[in-house]
Structures are given as structure tokens and as C-alpha cells.
Amino acid sequence: MNLSTPKGLIILVVLMFGFGFALVPLYDVFCEITGLNGKTAGQYEGELTTKSNEKAREITMQFIVNKNDNLPWEFAPNQNQMTLALGEQKQTTYRVTNTYNTAAIAQAVPSVSPSAAAEYLHKIECFCFEQQPLDAGEHKDMPLVFFVDPELPESISKITLSYTLFDITNSTAPASDPHKVKKVGN
Amino acid sequence: MQRFLHQFCIALAFLIPSSVYAAWELNMPRGVTETSNTVYDLHMLILWICVGIGVVVFGVMFWSILYHRKSQGAKAAQFHESTTIEVIWTVIPFIILIGMAVPSTTVLIDMYDSSESDIDIQVTGYQWKWQYKYLNEEIDFFSTLTTPKEEIANKQAKNPNYLLEVDNELVVPINKKIRFLFTANDVIHAWWVPELAVKKDAIPGFINESWTRINEVGTYRGQCAELCGKDHGFMPIVVKAVTQENYDIWVAEQKATALATAAAATQDWTMEDLVAKGETVYQKNCAGCHMVDGSGLPPAFPALNGNEVVLGDIEKHIDIMVNGVPGTAMAAYGKQLSAVDLAAVITYKRNTWDNKTGEVISPADVTAFMSK
Amino acid sequence: MSEQTLTIDDHNHHDHGPAKGLLRWVFTTNHKDIGTLYLIFSLTMFFIGGMMAFVIRAELFQPGMQLVDPGFFNQMTTMHGLIMVFGAVMPGFVGLANWQIPLMVGAPDMALPRMNNWSFWILPFAFTMLLSTLFMGGGAPGFGWTFYAPLSTTYAPPSVTFFIFAIHMMGISSIMGAMNIIVTLFNMRAPGMGLMQMPMFAWSWLITAFLLVAVMPVLAAVVTMMLMDIHFATSFFSAAGGGDPVLFQHIFWFFGHPEVYIMILPAFGVVSEILPTFSRKKLFGYHSMVYALIAIALLSFVVWAHHMFTVGMPIGGQLFFMYATMLIAVPTGVKVFNWVATMFKGSLTFETPMLFAIAFVVLFTVGGFSGIMLAIAPVDFQYQDTYFVVAHFHYVLVPGAIFGIVAGVYYWLPKWCGKMYDESLGKMHFWLSFIGLNLTFFPMHFVGLAGMPRRVPDYALQFADFNMMASMGAFLFGTSQLIFVYLVIKAIRSGKEAAKVPWESAEGLEWTLPTPLPYHTFTTPPVIEQK
After folding, report:
1. A181 CB near a chain C CB, below 8 Å?
2. Residue C237 class from Cβ within 10 Å (0-12 exposed, 13-18 middle, 19+ buried)?
3. Of residues A102 and B221, which shows the higher confidence score?
4. Which residues of B touch C240 (CB under 8 A)?
5. pLDDT of residue B63
6. Do A66 and B117 touch (CB under 8 A)?
7. Which of B28, B137, C70, C397 sees the fewest Cβ atoms within 10 Å?
8. What is the DSSP string of C384-436?
9. What pLDDT does residue B18 have?
10. How many C-beta neighbours within 10 Å does residue B82 have?
11. What is the Cα–Cα distance from C363 to B68, expressed in whole angstroms?
12. How would DSSP label each residue in A70-121?
């Protein structure tokens, strides 16, 4: 009997199992390129871009936090809202306070709405790139330096940027896996 | 005549109790926004197209069942293929689908309108309640089911808004564009109000957005629409749309209440007042898991009656209430309840059922702990 | 010429029949025995899943919490779904495949008989493990058969690990079974039977088997990722570590959507066998029916996110998945029209298999209509996660998949055991099932549209009347299935002898064999006439 059929099928099975896992980085890449699901890209490496000769359009940026019982620290933006021109570099800070009586490490994860705006938000410096260790009772004002790409679609005039703070003190994962806690992250 | 009327009234009396419940609702509501109306119309269009297709297809089949029976002497024809007819009944459905897709696309594009809004509200789903934060107003509150446990347990007759009533309703003005930012505290929830035709998943760590513009004053009720654990069916949504004037009044009231709550934390409270308040806080927030009588559902939800911590270390008790117990279902109520509510429920638990510590934990004690 | 050949050792025996004793069933490699094992297993799981449905409908009979607490209710809905999907429907169709495929293509057995045995015997172990979670601390899984993260990871009870292992075992069983079917159909058809001469049931299983081989590994991948998130501190589905709960949904539904076609395609095959027989007329449009099956299978890979219209996809994504989903209606419609054309101007009789097959065509189409409605993304915001969806999938699964299995059993049982079942009991089973299921599931359209969410143990008062009706229908439907059990046992033990071709114009190789079937058949391949 021809055994090439079963062999071929087993290879297909293994490939599809691998495909399941491959969907994980594929999803990330797809999200970074398209800004799907409000995931922002990592640290912006390029230069400030502005449309020349035109007065840049102004939009509103809103800063909020997502509550998360996993880490019920004091965490709030120091500025709720700002108006800015597209291409203009701006800065704001978020204040975080460790209300535990032990030291801990937090990771801030951003999310942008509308999700179509995510790929146009360029972060030059962001506290979400690094883990944030805090001693018991310590508080910090964490910086965010950014600008919004002038190519932002006309239909979007307000962008909301939200951070969720997660407790990663106990994550003992090795650094090699991109899906474990990263130093330079989204 | 009198006898007839008499009997008629008795008959009516039997009908009325069931007619209070019996809505025999058949269809989606039209709703109170432009979006909800276009969605309803699209729904009816698709439904009628499907009914039409069904009538034709089933009509042919039922015709065969009636007139092509062997028992009636029908002889089988011999045809069994026809490329022409296959092409026809591939192309025609395809065209019908395009006819459906065009209005569907238009309605969807309208829903993705991200133009400037008048009010922004951050909606956070918790196990098992909603939190609403008005981003431009510094108003922030929880909205929890208030249907009494006795009604759910069939010990009391159910009121007309059974399972669809909350303590703090989401009050919004009519004719203003309201933008919602959805997220969640723990697992995925979904916020759904049928009469606004808004449903969006609330995903922990991410924000989703949707919008609405309500045309009519009224109260609109919805429910959580994503399985989120034990009490998924018990975390409703109530939106109260009011005129702009009434909305402004409500905003002012909310701010005044917030000030009053903060002030109450610095006042002295008696044991009786704390226990009384604590009982309502407990019913609303704790009884779902720890049971009305404090017996809990061990091991997931410990009994509080006779509980070691409740009877013992005050500092530890306050810590558990404020910070929760990470890795379990016990939430960090420091973020959800005021200092007064926390003090009240702690005092209540320590002085009810078989627990008789006689201890009073004041709001000041709680505030002191939280500022350490 | 292929590189390897396998000679089937003939033992120089006459038909020695099956081994004696219970161990026969443990060690059998005979496709008929294994088919029987799968069917009995499927029927058992159908009743277990059905009892869970009883608990659900009993609690939902009236508003208020009467019987169970909300946590246990979630366990019931979860286990009901898992058991019906993986324990009743899928093994039921594999049972029919095992019995019929070798007979229909003139093969002596399946290509890999020992693997066939193992494919079956994994299942009782997998389901014992799954059902045992009901008795574990923290209870059985209560996160829905779709087990979204993080409810199924961070917030799951300890039994989730056993759930994951059970899924792995079921997956391995399905993959091996599917491989067996593909290898058999490609390599062991009687000489002269080209692919386009295969019976429709064989075609439907060939395509289904490819779907299984393609997507069961993806399910295995997603539950492995769950396992890693739960036990090995990864963050596939947790935003804390850079992951995303929505990723879970994408990977799950990439499996999940083809899975529902896996559950229905074999039913299409059964109906395509039965309707021509009782219409005394060949199936209309054989080639189109094959192409339609292939089109449905291919399209099933690109529509998964229609289960996710409310997660916050960008509009481009919503539109793509809406259009692709609507497109599946075209080949499915072609199949329905072809079935109706088969009946049209035939010479119809209405024995029990035909009753189930006709009900399938009508009621599956009703489920298809609610499917088209669900595909319309902006309106789906009002339907998603409501009882409207529950109505839709129960229409395609109960008078769809389940009726397909039952119709196949009624149709082929006389050939398998050489005895006729009691036709009046069969018709009674049909009518009570038909009335029961419609009473149960039709009202669910209404309460869903009126605003009742799914997976809730209690509901607001305006949903009370239809819920009471649905519960009564469920009790009727459930108890009527006992008639089926009684009828099958009665037929096997004391039924009237069946003729070689009990159905007047049945065509196909299986009907050329003696009734009852010998233990070994087609040890010499038959000669196929070229048409």
C-alpha cells in the first residue's frame, strides 16, 4: 500500500500545529503594521515629520487609565486632555504610587482608541517601554514624549490613549520568549 | 347580566398576574437612536428576504411532497443534472447577497463614525458590575444589580424590572453624541443596550470605543453579553436619558455627593449606624459570593461567619478588603467602595451572625490604613 | 509505482467471524465493530449531554434560581456543549464513516485498522477525564465550550488542566480517524471507481477529513498555549505580558469555524444518499454537489471572525468577514436546491429515514437563514451572544447534524444487522422529535431578539413565557430519544428479517452485499461498471 499519503498527512498535521503557534507572532506583526486592536508600535526611531507649508491640523489627545485589580495602585494621568497639532512633539506624565507595603514591579500596557489611530501615534519616550520598579509607598511621575503623524486620517479628531498597570513582580520568565515580560515593549 | 360581569371579572383577575409577565416579545426593539432604527430596518429587510426565499424553496418541496408521491401514482422523472439551472441558482442568490451587502455596508460605516463627541464615558466591566467614569466631569461610580436576593430565591414576588435594575444609573443627556470607551478589570465582559444598538466587548488591558446619540428621554436597560463567570447574568446596565437641564442638575448632584462622601469619612459614626449601613453594603457587594448568612461557598468563597480574620486581626481584615487577595476572586474593594462603606461593612461582619467582637472600625481607621 | 506495498495477509481462512467475548471489542480492528463502538459511544454521550440540557432547561423553566447555583449552571452549559460537539456529533459521524466507507468504495476495511482501534479507544478515556472534572475541587470548567481567555486561564478552576488534556486526547483521536479516512478513500477504492464515481457520503467525509487534519492541530496549539499561560508563566493571552485575549479568539475560531462544517458536511452526505433512494430518482447535480462541498470547505477557512464582530475590529476586517460569510450561502444554497430538485418529480415514499432527511433539508435551511442574518455585521451587534445565536446553532446542529446521524442509522441499520426496525415506532420517534425540537428552539429566536443574553441561569420577566415553552419542548425532545434506543435494541434482538435491499431503489455497493453483512466484506474487490 502506498504510505506516502499518511506521511503527507502527518506532515500537514505538524505544519498546522506549528501554524497555530505561528499565528501568535503573525498577529503581533499584523497588529503593529495596521494598528489593529489599538496596539501601538514600539519606540519611534524616525524623525519628526510635518507636512510642509500647511498649518498642521489640531486634534485632541485624551489620557486615561484602565483599572486593574491585579495591581490596585494609585495610577492616574497628570493631564487628562491636551490639544496639539499633528507633527508637534508633546510631553505629559502619569503619576503612579505603590500603595503596598512591599516593593513591586509594574508594567504599563498601552491601548489606543480609535484603533485606526494607533499606527499614527509615535512614542519617542514612554514609561511603557520599561518595567517600573517601585518601593513600598514610593511614587513617580513617569514621562511620555510623543507626536501624532500628520498622515492621521481626517475623520479622526480625538485620540484616547489608555494605560493598564500590571504587576509583574513574580514573573520569572526567561527573557528570550517575546511573549514574556519585555524590557522594551509595546 | 350581573352574573356574567361578575364571572368576567373573576376570569380577568386570573389573567392579569400572568399578563404582567407575559410580554410574548417577538422582535428586536426599534430603539431610540438613528443607528438603532437603521439596524432594525436592515434586520427586517434581511428577515423578509429570507422568508421570501424560504417560501419559494419550501413551496417547491411541499408541492413535491403532495403531488409527487408514489402512493398517488407518481412516476419518477429521469433528469438528474442541468448546468444551466445550476448556473442560474448560483448567480441569482449571489445577486441577492449583493443586494443585502450594500445597505449592510452603509449602516456599518455609519457606526464607525469617530467624529467629535460631546461626552466621553469610560465603561469598565468588573466581575460582576459596571463602573462608569465621565472623563470630562470627574464623576466616577459603580453600578450594581439591586434586585433583592429574596426575589431571586423565589421568596418574594419579582418586581417588573427584575434583574434589570441598578443602584446608580448611567445618566446621559439626549441629543448629544456620547462616546464610550470600554475596558475591563478582570475577564472579558460586553456592554449591551438593545435600544441603543450598542454592543461592544470590554477587554482587560485594551480599550474599545463606540458611540450613541439618544433621541428620546427614557430609561433603557441592557445586560452583560459575554460570559464572565458566575454572575454573568446578574450585572445589568441601566441608561437614563434625560434633558440637558436635568443632566446638568444631576452632574451637580453627583459632585455634591462626592464631597459629602469624602466629608462623611472624617465624621464619627456609631456602631448602630455603621452596622446598618454595612448590611446594605454587604447585601450588594458581598452576599453574591459569601452568601446572605455569611456561610460562603468554600473553598472558593470562604465563610465569614466564624471566620478567623473577621474575628481576629483588624489590620489584616482591612488589608484584605482594601487590596483584595491576588490570585483569587476577592477583588480590591479599596478601589470600589468609599472609606465609609468599607468601615461599615467591616464593622457589620464583625458584629453579625455569630460574630460578636463588639469592635467598631471607623472610616478614619480605613483612611489611615490606606494612606500608610 | 509507489515505493512501498503492503500485502493483506489472507490467513487462508473462510470467514471466521468475530472473536468471542468482551475482549473482542477491545482489540477489534474490524471497521464494522469500530463503527458500532463509535455509535454506541455517541449515543451514550448524547444522553449524558442531554441530561445536562435537562438541568439547564429545568433551571430556565421559570425566572428565579430554583435548582442550581450560577456557578454550577455555567458548568452545565460548558459541559453540555463540549459533550455534544466532541462526544456525540463527531463520534456519531465517525461511526457512520467506519461502517459505510469501506462498504461504499468496495474496500475490505479501513486502510489503517489498528490505528482505527486506537482512535476509538482514546475517546472513553478522554471523556472520563472530562466528566470527572465535575467532581473536582472548584468544579468542572464553567467558561463555555468556547473557553475564552482570560476566563479560561487566569480565572479558571483547577480542573482546567484536565479539560486541556481531554481536548488533546479527543484531537488526537479525530486526527487519526481523519487520516485513516483520507488514506482509505485515496488508496482503497475498488478498481474502476474514480473519485467522481464515489458516493456523496464518501465525498462528504473526504472533505471533512481534510478539514479535521487542517484545524484540529490548531485547536491543539491554542489549548497548549492556554496550558503554558496557566502553568508556565507565558502571556499569550494576557495583556500584562504583551499578549492579547483577542488572539485567543482568533486562533480558537480559526479552528472553530471549520469545526462546525466538520459537524455538518457528513450530514449533507447522508441526506444525499437518502433523498435519491426515497425519491426513486438520482441525486440532482452530482458534480455541482461535489464542487459545492469543496467551496464550502475552502470558504470555511476565511470566515472565522464573524464570531468576533463585537471585539473591536477595524471596519475593513468587519466588512471582509461579513462578505466572506455571506458568500458561503451560495454553495450551501446550491446544495439545498439540488436536494429539492432531486425530490421534484420523483416518486416519493416517506419511510423514517426519508422523514428525517426531509426535516433536515427544511430545518437546516431555517438555521441557514438565521445564519445569513447573523452574518450582517451591524445587525449582529444586536444578535451576538443572545438566544438568537443559540437558536441558530441548535437548528443547524439538532435537525441538522443529529437528524443526519439518526437518518443514517435508520437507513443503514437493516443492512448492518439484517433486521428491520419497527416502522411505526420510527415514525413516532420522528414526529415527537420534530415537534419537541421546534417547541424548544423556535421560541429562542424570539427571546434572543427581545434581548435575552445567552449563558445566563436567570432572566428578566419579559422572557418568561417563551422560556417555559422551550423547556417543555426540551423535555419532550429528550424523552422521545428513549424511543430510538428502545427501537434499535428491539430491532437488533427481535426485528423482522430485512431484505438484501430493504429500500426499493437504493443504489450503491453496500446494497450488493448480503444482509446481514458478513464480518469481512469485499475481501476481493468488486468490479465497477463504467457508466
Report:
1. yes
2. buried
3. B221
4. 205
5. 95
6. no
7. B137
8. TTBHHHHHHHHHHIIIIIIHHHHHHHHHHHHHHHSEE--HHHHHHHHHHHHHH
9. 39
10. 13
11. 21
12. TS--EEEES-SEEEEETT--EEEEEEEE--SSS-EEEEEEEEEESGGGGGGE
Q: Is the pLDDT of residue B178 over 70?
A: yes
Residue B4 confidence (pLDDT): 58
Interface test with chain C among B81, B152, B191, B301, by most C beta carbons within 10 Å: B81
ipTM: 0.93
Question: Of C39, C146, C142, C149, nearest to C97 (Cα)?
Answer: C39
Contacts A20 to C, Cβ<8 Å: 217-222, 225, 251, 254
Say yes or no for a CB contact (<8 Å) between B205 and A164. yes
Nearest to A181 among C183, C216, C241 (CB): C241
Please tell me which residue in C204, C332, C342, C370 is annotated as part of the active site: C332
At residue C242, the pLDDT reads 84
- Please state, rounded to an integer, the average pLDDT across all residues of chain C: 94
CB contact under 8 A, C385 and B192: yes
For residue C2, the model assigns a pLDDT of 40
Query: Is C138's Cβ below 8 Å from some Cβ in B?
Result: yes
CB atoms C384 and B225 under 8 Å: yes
Name the one residue in this structure whose C-alpha cell is 373573576: B10
Q: How far is CA A129 from CA A103, A115, A168, A183, in A?
A: 20, 20, 14, 6
d(CA B99, CA C325): 15
Q: Which of B80, B82, B204 lies at the smallest CB-CB distance from C281? A: B80
- Chain A stretch 79-118, residues whose beta carbon is closer than 8 A to a beta carbon of chain C: 107, 109, 111, 115-116
What is the distance in angstroms between the CA of the first residue and the CA of the last residue of chain B? 81
User: Which of A166-175, B80-89, B278-287, C250-259 shows the lowest mean pLDDT across its residues?
Assistant: A166-175
In degrees, to the nearest 5, what angle opens at C-alpha C67 toward C-alphas C63 and C73? 85
User: Minimal CA–CA distance to A166: which of A181, A156, A149?
Assistant: A181
Q: What is the pTM of this model?
A: 0.91
Whether C145 sits among the annotated catalytic residues: the reply is yes
Assess whether C494 carries a catalytic annotation: no
C261 is catalytic: yes
CA distances from C52 to C67, C91, C449 (A): 13, 19, 25
From the centroid of its chain, how far is CA B213?
A: 19
Q: Which three cell numbers stand for residue C210?
A: 481534510
Helix axes C403-417, C352-375, angle to 10 degrees: 160
